[in-house]
Amino acid sequence: MELELFRQDLIQTTTCSSGTLAVLPLTEEKKTQKVATGDLSGVIQSFSVKKGEFSVAFKTLPSAGCKVTSLVLGKGKQQKDKIFVAAGNQIRGLNKKGKEFFKFNTQLTETIRRVDVFEKNIWSAGEYVHNHFIEGKDKALYLSPDRINDAEVVPLFSPTELWPVLACQDRYVRVLRGSEVTYEAPTPSAPVSLKYVLASHDPQHRFPNAKEVLYGTDTGTLVQLLLEPESARQGFTLGNPRKQGAVSAIYSGIDFTKTGMNNIVVGREDGGVEVLDMEDGGRLRTVYSLKLTESINTLDGGFLTGLLAQEFVMHTFSGKVISFAPPGGGLLVGSSEPTKVKATKAGSAVPVPGAEEEERRASYAKQIDRLRGDITALKQEIEAERTRFAMRGGDTALLAISAPFTVQDKCKLEPDEACYVLTIESAVPIFTVAIQCNAALQMLDVPTNVAILSRSPPDEVNGNLTLATYRCQDSTNRLAVKFKVREGRSASLSAFVIPAISPKAAVVLRHTIRPLCLHQRITVMDTSRPTNELLITGSFATGDAHAWVTGLLPDIPPTLPPGQDGASFVFQNTLLGTQLLCRYRAGEARFVSDLVSTLGIIHEHIMREATAAKLRVSVSFNPSAQSLQHSVALVWPQLEKQRTLKKSFLMLEALQELKMQDGDLSYLSNEYRTVLERADKIRQEYKEQPQHLDHLVALIKDLYLDFCKLSGVSTPKQRLPALEQLLNDTSSTLEQLMEFLLGQR
């Protein structure tokens, strides 16, 4: 069945962080539930809706130094209606009327991203540190090996003993007991959101004692974990075949489809929202979906605008609070007569469709009148401020400096396409975004962008090898910049975001592109592959080796946990599928890979850094001719495809001219007729990746040079033109290429 939901825009806050909205429990007075929100301006407010009228229970004043980063309800029996807020390193408690009854300065150096409260227990999660306090005193501390993206507390042992569950960037969900990791569950990609679900989605009741946790990943998948005190089992996995955004929020507390099991609501970073229903066989299906223009930060639900039906509510990045109600629920404004109802076969009564439609129209009209009144009041405030500013002799240049706006951005590797996507989201509409980089980037089209891309010639004198501008045509708060880059050297990427407001201001976003930027973390290395080994020894500390690896590869924590002498990481090249093992400790760093060019980049980077730090190191290399053949065999299918594509593209113009002159093309070979039939697709593919063949040719040339260099074999310069000709020749074979690389021709 397809679900029908009606949207209602409730209130507007300023920009917000994830996890800053909560629905208070129902009261005995049978009133609608209150909604509490917090935002980055420091405002905390609670409101409710009754008979279409909005009522604000309380609203605090803005505070620039108290950005709300987490807002939750207490989990104790007497804390269900208590609001706990984290801002900076402080935790505050407010009752449902807004009166502050608790304040705790944790003295932490990290900003608290997530807080949970149960009786006298407080759990706080920062970027890398998770703390447990009892009555304001330290009880336990855990330093995560990688960034903590989200956290929950789950009653695994007993209803009164809650254990923290952490979603970590290094592709693990960790279950803690005190300061120790009880166990950890590997994840397919980095988990970015986590939700403990009271009513388990286990239709066959196979694990009645397990606690269900749902987590979403940065690649857009949704996974079920069934947790027990000693171990975890993975349940269902919902893939992401449509390449939607990362799962940023999860909620499961309402049975919209009346199947006896709560539906799962998923919110994504790209604005996608899905309502999922579980069938008897345990398979998930989407019963409702929509797409907003901004990321979904928080999801919750309850009786928000009426007592006839529950609805789910979301808090978006720009601060919109939006609810979605099924038929019979939501903002319904009727006449003085009671709502007409009809009886069903089951004996229950539901509103007559025509009557409900009339009430919903009246409700929308009332909302429009309220919004018009708000707009009029805002215009009056703006005019008053302009008058006051002019009377003080205000200067627009000074105003531009003091006109901040919030921008959140994320530069993420897309493994399936071996490219990067820089996502920019602004609290105000974007006018233009200028891109500057000291490396050559291949800018790719993004179909969802409502912006015109303009490229400028590279300015090699000043080191600006990439200059591009995105100018937005329509009003949009979100923009995606997609690009490909070659591995080999470190680069700096800057994005200048200019909003569509006056006077003009700009925010500069900076990202570092590392030398091995196309590598992503994996958990286990394939030991059956032929590999090369690079061993570096010397009088360096573990911190020096960690700094080298951090400067080379993405997704490495900036520091190692205290007391840990050494580390080991495994990576996979998203373009070629080759793998890399990094294992290091004080005095020794070992790198193993089936792609010798990767080791060549590592060797060059470490030699440069060690020389700058005046460290004496020794290098030994153990080459493998089999690994050279293995690496070239991985690249060869892509090379053949791109050579054929370029050849077909260059033939298109001549073939189409023949088609215009001669109506009958039966004399052409099957190959040429196929090229004409696929003309549009060939143009599209070549347009998307015009430089891909050049990149692959350069990659094999670098592979050859690095293998000879690290093996101590002199490489005659005159062989490189012959190698390039062989690679571009569509009639050449893999066997001929291997003979050339191994010096047999």
What is the mean predicted local confidence, pLDDT? 87
Q: Biggest sheet: strands side by side, in what order? A: 40-42-43-44-41-45
**Main sheet?**
6 strands, antiparallel
What is the tally of helical segments? Answer: 10
Class from secondary-structure proportions: alpha+beta
Find the count of extended strands (DSSP E, 2+ residues): 45
Helix content: 10-25%
Q: Quote the beta fraction.
A: 35-45%
Rg estimate, integer Å:
30 Å
Pfam family, one: BBS7_pf
Domain BBS7 GAE: 405-509
Domain BBS7 platform: 519-622
Keywords: Coiled coil
Description:
With 745 residues, the protein is an alpha+beta fold. It contains 10 helices and 45 strands. It has a 6-stranded antiparallel sheet with strand order 40-42-43-44-41-45, covered by helices on one side. Strands 35-36-33-38-39 form a 5-stranded antiparallel sheet, with no helix packed on it. Strands 1-28-27-26 form a 4-stranded antiparallel sheet, with no helix packed on it. It is globular and about 85 Å long. The N and C termini lie far apart (66 Å).
